[in-house]
Amino acid sequence: MIRVLMTPFILYELAHGQFLAGGWLFGAAAFTDLLDGAVARRFGAETKIGLYLDPIADKILLTSIYIGLAAGHAVAVWVVVVIFARDLWIVLLSAVALKFTSFRKIEPSVWGKASTFLQIMTAVAVMAANGYHDAILARICDFLIWGVVGFAVVSAADYSLRGVRWLRNDKLRRIVDL
Fold this sequence. Notes:
By secondary structure, the protein is mainly alpha-helical. The protein contains six helices and no strands. The longest helix has 43 residues, at 135-177. The protein is globular and about 60 Å long. 25% of the residues are buried.
């Protein structure tokens, strides 16, 4: 919940070009995520609702960071559109699977995890490059941004293919069961 509450402040700072402040707030939000997970595991306090809400809070935070970076002119708007499109596509696929199939165990793929990891690292690098006005890091960020876009596309395709494979296997199971 703390991450979600911090998100508007991070978004505000980034949108107003305060990349260092936004970066430090993002670091604090990430720390609360680590702390929350460690405490839940240590005391056996993991809950089903927490398993659902934690990735949603992460996605709200990360998406807001990219919106803030675009509003602060640190990344191009089209990059945010690609990230949003990937996330919306995955949510749509999940919703269809939950509504029309018996599939209930939606887990992140290695490509999805890699995409999220690269988004986080790139956001941190972009905040640092802009906050410190570092031209070399800014050049590195240009390559990282293309990596984010590439991994977003690959992970969306991977989730799509996983869904198609599952549907084919489900149809085969139904035929065999007849």
